[in-house]
Design a protein that fits this description.
By secondary structure, this protein is of the alpha/beta class. The protein folds into three domains: 237 residues, Medium-chain alcohol dehydrogenases, catalytic domain (Quinone Oxidoreductase, Chain A, domain 1, Alpha-Beta Complex); 134 residues, Rossmann fold; 119 residues, Rossmann fold (3-Layer(aba) Sandwich), CATH 3.40.50.720. It has 19 helices and 28 strands. Helix 5 crosses helix 15 and helix 10 runs parallel beside helix 11. The radius of gyration is 26 Å and the shape is globular.
């Protein structure tokens, strides 16, 4: 290691008195920094229970763009006065400790390196790094009690000495990918929860009330007398409280919600689309709607897909008369079907490419992968990057732009690719509701649609939910990751099992953050933009263009196209500020 790189890693240089930082003062790119440039500020001061960290690498996420677009209307910073209390974005970061508060000197050392688990919770309240808490779009940042002593302990996760800064920072978005295949749900009615049972007039009442667990409260609507009689008996025996509501059609939903709150479980007996759609308005976070029916629904259901993604709503069902069978762990967790056929919609973007990379590298993963995108250049990047890996692993990878063929030809391709059986997994990476509606009919028996794209709550899609109970298809979604996901991802990168560096498409110094955000907003690169805040004067540069801008760094790339630890070391050796 050269003296410059050693001094940088070990923090053997005087810290600057002033730094560059990127506050967001409101909605729009014009509010990010000042006139497209970072703001100069004093070095942050830290207290006895705080750390001062140097930001070594920060990856730009499309979630940052959502905050820039929405300003104080973004749900995580709702009603914040950004003009006087600006937010510092950036939650995909690798940092080094450069200052330690007096009360923390027994826990931390100067020069220790960490990544930040951004989904910070304190007392059950979200205090996300880069949203509520100041993030990493700056050269130096203060880390306080929320991160050091949150609900899951310390949200700083240690890096190994040899780990690259970019590959560590990218553990955060990669952990979100990993987490999306670990989605679980309850295997039964929530113990001690609130259950709403809704009958359908004219339906045969011969159902088995095998709950498995006792709720705290059951609200009964339009149930026939044998079932209602059984519920009354159990209630009198002390298993739960029972409330018999008015007929469904006469319910005042606003008053009903005020009386009962959100429901943990809603069981609907019979094929009635309107009852599914309207009752779903009162489903709580992590709630489950179970449809027990044998006949097809008469029409589609308007489903809030944003609540599937952000609130973990589940739609289950069975044609059996045994209610408990609806809760059977079909596709739990949400891993890609071994030996199955997977379709990635919006595969050309940074996150899409991560999903495709994982699919073709996954031991025991799918044997056929279809990647679609409407951007041919980005789609070509998918083939260029991952077709050789897929071929080595015996996975058939096909990349297709649906806009380059008629709808009839594209539908025919989908049927032929799956042999007419449908896809075991459909992963939606483009935030376009129409794509969900168009893709859902192509799910196979027990197929799983993973809505990874962050469609906001209130985004409505019209879906035929008949296959939920007749063919056991499932819809899932997730947002963010847990500490365990981050640790597993970081360890996979450090052990060589996962190359997070493969996702790097462009790099820049601290002044390049504005261009980096704009590039992410415009989808200019097929992979991730990584900013090195301690590098000055490096404009945003595609990795392959380093050949002209920094030939010494380019010479270290893998196959002339992939970022790696050696290229990063050469960059820092050449350009990191250590004076």
């Amino acid at each position: 290691m050269t003296d410059v790189l050693r001094k940088y890693k070990d923090v053997e240089y005087p810290l600057p008195a002033r730094i560059l930082t990127w506050p967001l003062y409101g909605a729009g790119m014009e509010s990010f920094g000042r006139d497209g440039k970072p703001v100069e500020a004093p070095m942050p001061k830290y207290g006895p229970d705080e750390l001062l960290v140097r930001v070594d690498a920060i990856s730009i996420c499309f979630s940052d763009i959502k905050v820039i677009n929405q300003g104080n209307k973004h749900p995580r910073i709702m009603d914040r006065d950004l003009v006087n209390d600006p937010v510092t974005l950036g939650h995909e970061a690798a940092v080094t400790i450069v200052g330690i508060g007096e009360n923390l000197k027994d826990r931390f050392k100067i020069g220790e390196r960490y990544i930040v688990q951004a989904d910070v919770f304190v007392g059950g309240k979200s205090m996300a790094f880069g949203y509520v808490l100041p993030g990493a779009q700056t050269q130096y940042q203060v880390i306080g009690r929320e991160i050091l002593n949150g609900d899951e302990g310390c949200y700083l996760l240690p890096m190994q000495e040899a780990t690259g800064y970019a590959e560590a920072a990218l553990a955060e978005p990669w952990a979100c990918v990993v987490a999306s295949y670990r989605i679980g749900r309850r295997p039964c009615i929530k113990p001690g929860g609130v259950l709403w049972m809704i009958g359908t007039p004219g339906e045969d009442g011969d159902y088995s009330l095998d709950f498995g667990e006792n709720p705290k409260l059951v609200v009964a609507t339009d149930l026939d007398w044998p079932m209602l009689d059984q519920l009354r008996f159990w209630s009198e025996a002390g298993r739960f409280d029972l409330i018999e509501s008015p007929a469904f059609e006469s319910i005042d939903f606003e008053a009903f919600a005020a009386e009962h709150g959100a429901f943990d479980d809603i069981i609907i007996l019979g094929a009635h689309a309107d009852r599914i759609e309207r009752s779903a308005q009162l489903l709580g976070k992590h709630g489950i709607i179970s449809i027990i029916a044998s006949k097809p629904l008469a029409g589609p259901v308007k489903l809030d897909i944003g609540k599937v993604h952000y609130q973990n709503h589940s739609y289950l069902g069975t044609t059996s008369r045994h209610i408990a069978e609806a809760y059977e762990p079909i596709r739990v967790p949400s891993e890609l079907q071994p030996g199955g056929i997977a379709w990635f919609i919006g595969a050309g973007g940074p996150m899409g490419q991560m999903h495709v990379q994982r699919a073709v590298e996954l031991a025991g993963g799918p044997v056929k992968v279809l990647a679609t995108d409407v951007d041919t250049a980005r789609l070509n990047s998918v083939s260029e990057r991952f077709a050789p890996i897929a071929a080595r692993r015996g996975v058939e990878l096909r990349a297709v732009n649906p806009n380059e063929m008629s709808k009839e030809d594209f539908d025919r391709l989908l049927r032929e690719f799956t042999g007419g059986k449908g896809f075991d997994d459909i992963v939606v990476l483009a935030p376009v509701p129409a794509l969900i509606e168009q893709a859902a009919p192509f799910l196979a028996e027990e197929g799983l649609m993973n809505v990874f794209a962050g469609l906001p709550i209130g985004t409505i899609v019209s879906l035929d939910l008949t296959p939920v109970y007749t063919r056991r298809v499932r819809f899932v979604g997730s947002s963010g990751s847990k500490v365990s996901d981050m640790l597993d991802t970081l360890h996979a990168a450090e052990s060589g099992k996962l190359s997070t560096n493969t996702s790097v498409a462009a790099i820049g110094g601290i002044e390049a953050s504005w261009d980096g955000m704009l590039a992410a907003k415009e989808g200019r690169f097929p992979g991730k933009v990584v900013i090195y805040p301690q590098v000055r004067g490096l404009e945003l540069t595609a990795v392959q263009d380093l050949k002209d801008r920094l030939p010494n760094v380019y010479a270290k790339l893998t196959d002339g196209m992939f970022w790696n630890r050696e290229a990063e070391a050469e960059l820092l050796r050449s350009m990191a500020a250590t004076e």
